[in-house]
# Entry
Amino acid sequence: MATSTFRKQFAVRPDRANEFVAEMTKTVTPTLKSGFRSNLKHEKDLRESLLKALR
# Structure
């Protein structure tokens, strides 16, 4: 199983490669509800920056 950080190295045995690829390409169910709102204080600044960048 892969780690949750890209800084760690791991190896997959050749005989388990297909199983690993199948597990890593599974579709996951979203965990955030559609009405999710962050309580982060910089969210407004981030949103404005993203909107400017996308214009």
